[in-house]
Structures are given as C-alpha cells and as structure tokens.
Design a protein that fits this description.
Elements: H1 12-37, H2 44-55, E1 62-68, H3 69-72, E2 85-94, H4 97-100, E3 107-110, H5 115-122, E4 126-128, H6 142-151, E5 155-163, E6 166-175, H7 184-221, E7 232-239, E8 250-256, E9 261-269, H8 273-291, H9 297-308, E10 316-324, E11 329-335, E12 341-343, E13 350-351, E14 370-373, E15 379-383, H10 395-407, H11 413-424, E16 433-440
Antiparallel strand pairs: 1-2, 1-6, 2-3, 4-5, 5-6, 7-16, 8-9, 9-10, 10-11, 11-14, 12-13, 12-15, 15-16
C-alpha cells in the first residue's frame, strides 16, 4: 500500500435546495388541485367539505371547517371579540375524523382564549407549533381533546376564512402521523387555501340565504291548507327548486266564491328568486280582489294582464277556473299556461283543448272563457311547467308520461299528488313546481232557508 487519497464534497446546501424545491412543487400542486376541487357547487356543506378534504393528508392529518353561527344566519354579527364565539362545524376530514366524532352541523361555543376564537378575533393565523395533552384543551372541544391527545396530535394551526373583508370562520388543522410541526410555509399554504375557499363559501352562504328567503316568502303566500268547498275535494303541493334560479314564481290558490262556487288558480311568474316571489304575492292579492267581484275568468285575466305589465317581473302564465258545484260545470280561461288535465270518473285522462292565450303582461291579447261539464267523480289537475319540462326529454313525451301516470294513479288525491312528484321530479330539479288537484263530488241539496256562502 503506497498511500490513501480522500475527497469530501459538501452537498448539504444542494440537498436542502432540492428538498425545498420539491416542497414548493407539492405546495403549488396542492393549490392547483384546490382550484379545481373547491367550489364545484353552491352547496355550503359541500364547499366546506371540499376544503377540508383538500388539506388532508398533504397538509394535515385532520382538518375542520367552522363558521360563525351569526354568519350562517345571514345577519350582522352580534359576537363580541372579548366573549365566547358560537361556531358551527360544517366539515371534518382526515383519519382522525371518525374518532373525534364531531357531527356535521355541530354547534360549539369557544372561549376567548381558544385557538379558533383568537384566529377569528385577530383575523390572522394562530399556530401552536408544539402542544401537549393539556394544551389541547384550548384548541379542541372538550370531547375531542382527549381523542386528539390519544392519537398523538402534537401541532395545530388555525387560519381565518376571510371574504370581502369579513371573517366568516376558521380552518383548523392538526398533525399526528406527520412528525413535523407546522412551519411558516405551511401557514402560508393554509392561508392561500383558506382565502380561495372563503370566496366560494361566501358565495354558497349568500346563495343559500337568498334561496331560503325566496322559498320562505313563496310558502308564506301559498294557502297552508286548501279550504273545504262544497262539491269539491282538493289537494295541493308545492315543491321548491334545487337552485335559486328556479325558486319563487310558481303558485296555486283556492278561493271561495258565492253560491257554492270555487275559483281554482295556478300561475307561474317568469323569473326567479325573491323578485319573482314578491311579484307572485302582488298578483295573488290582485287575483283574490278580482275574484270577489264575480267576474268571468277571461275578464279576470284581462285585468291581471294589465296589472302584470306594471310589475317588476312583467310576465306570467296563468289558468283561472271557476267551478260551480250547483250546476256541475267549470268555466276556464288560460294565459299561456300548460293545459289542465281532465281525469274523468270513467275513461282515460286527457288534456283540455283550451284557447292558449298569451302570457300575462304581453298586453292587448284577448282571452276566452271555455265551459266544461264536470260530473261527480271527475277530476281536474292544474300544474306548472316544472312538473313536466326537462332539458333531456321532449315536452310531448313528458306530457304523455303524465297522462299515463294519472291513468294508473291512486284514487286518493293526496296520494296522487305524491305519486306524480315521485315519478316526475328529481331532487336536483332546477325549477319549482305547484300542483292543484280537484275532484267533483255530489252536493247535498239546499233547503229553502239556506243562504249563499259569502266570499272569503
């Protein structure tokens, strides 16, 4: 052996740079993934769940999305920064989630020193880089703190969900399997994900509140229970749309008239949301006022046509019918609405061949009243287009399906309404629907001392 040669090369910086570059690529990939995964719908719970699942497992072993209860209610926050904060858990994801057992929608009140409360109060990230079992009491709800401690949770991070300058809630993250504490880079990444998701959450929250307001207004204007009328059995249904774009315009009414007569009305305001619901309310009031004057159906539609043209939502379709129980006949007029269905006691259901007319609000279009004999046991179905119109089937096909269902429908009116909705509607329908089903029955003979029923 003549000698020994040794050469040392320091690759520490090269390895560190390579590791940092790989981590940066992972963060960019996660942000890109979040752009496609978060905000795919306008459902609040779904959007929150998408955020939580995006964070696991790349960033955290457990992710929770909590929103202030006052934010969910749509009003101004009455929470004082120096007091407890009421937050509702919308999503929980990660391998620790089943053990933590916080159900979706769980409402908790966090004290001012809680990690989430401090995050919401300051509007800034709050990091607990190293925590012990006792420290978890200030980070997680009491029923979850022991589970997290037993699972080895050692680091936690909370970042605010901020949209349009308002803190909506917080994204809470924890690590157990990953031995590394949250770093500044992790905090920046969590902030980026939270800020992107907060906009989608705010959109979903606004959308949900607007849809609920339109639906509440719509339902408040509909008859809660159809009145008992001589010579008629009546069943009604209203089913809201899955989106605000279809909610607010469909409406039915049953109006008691004199001399055992009853007005049956179905209407669909063109438009959506609270504006359509408000227009529907104005037309409902006008219709009831006109009905009290005992006008011919065509005359009622002529007045409503003029009134509709002066409203914000300027067009609506409508069918107005008056059933006379003493004479066993029905007078009908329609304004651009789908035809009612006659369901005879004997024979097959069929659509009534009525003059269609133009929608209300068009103006200067004549309406015509038709007369129809209604025998005891005969039924009439009034409905809005949301029952039969779809994007994937021709209207004639769907109308044929409706007739087939009515031919095999149960005898009870309430069951028939449910049967039609179950067969023709899906939970994700973009339009609302109203049904009004009436069936004639014999009227008890009146005695000479009986008077006519007054208008209501």
């Amino acid at each position: 052996m003549l000698g020994l040669a040794l050469e040392l090369v320091d690759v520490t910086e090269q390895h560190r740079a390579s590791s940092e570059a790989a981590a940066a690529r992972r963060r960019l990939a996660l942000i890109a993934d979040a752009s496609t995964r978060i905000g795919t719908t306008l459902e609040l719970d779904t959007t929150a769940d998408e955020l939580a699942r995006t964070c696991v497992p790349e960033l955290a072993d457990l992710a929770a999305v909590d929103l202030l209860e006052t934010v969910l209610q749509g009003g101004d926050s009455d929470w004082a920064p120096d007091g407890p904060a009421a937050l509702r858990t919308l999503a929980l994801a990660g391998h620790l989630a089943p053990a933590v057992s916080v159900p979706s929608g769980h409402l908790a009140r966090y004290e001012p020193d809680h990690l989430i409360t401090r995050c919401i109060t300051t509007g800034r990230p709050v990091l607990a880089a190293q925590i012990t079992g006792q420290g978890l009491a200030h980070i997680a709800p009491s029923h979850a703190a022991a589970v997290l401690a037993g699972a080895g949770a050692h680091t936690c991070l909370a970042v605010p969900l901020t949209a349009r300058g308002r803190v909506l809630g917080a994204l809470g993250l924890a690590r157990a399997r990953n031995p590394l504490p949250f770093s500044e880079d992790d905090t920046a990444l969590a902030l980026e994900l939270a800020s992107r998701a907060a906009v989608s959450i705010d959109h979903a929250r606004w959308y949900q509140n607007q849809r609920q307001a339109a639906e509440n207004l719509q339902r408040s204007l509909l008859p809660q229970k159809p009145p008992h009328r001589p010579g008629l059995d009546i069943a009604c249904r209203y089913q809201p749309a899955s989106t605000i774009c279809g909610t607010g315009g469909d409406w039915y009414d049953v109006i008691a008239l004199s001399a055992d007569r009853t007005a049956l009305v179905i209407r669909d305001v063109m438009g959506s949301g609270t504006g359509a619901a408000a227009t529907m309310g104005q037309l409902r009031t006008a219709t009831r006022t006109l009905a009290a004057l005992d006008l011919d159906p065509a005359a009622v539609l002529r007045h409503l046509d003029r009134i509709t043209g002066e409203l914000e939502q300027r067009f609506a379709t409508c069918t107005y019918a008056v059933y006379d129980a003493r004479r066993a006949c029905c007078s009908l007029a329609t304004a651009g609405h789908l035809p009612p269905v006659l369901i005879p006691a004997v024979g097959a259901p069929r659509f009534l061949d009525l003059p269609t007319g133009a929608p209300l609000g068009v103006g200067s279009v004549p309406f015509e009243t038709s007369q129809l004999r209604i025998e005891p046991g005969d039924g009439l179905l009034f409905y809005t287009d949301g029952l039969v119109e779809t994007r994937s089937h021709p209207l004639d096909t769907r109308l044929g399906v409706l007739l087939g269902l009515l031919a095999r429908s149960p005898r009870r009116l309430e069951e028939t309404c449910d049967h039609l909705l179950d067969a023709l509607r899906r939970s994700d329908e973009p339009e609302d629907v109203a049904l009004l089903l009436a069936r004639a029955r014999p009227v008890a003979p009146r005695h000479s001392g009986d008077g006519d029923a007054g208008n209501t």
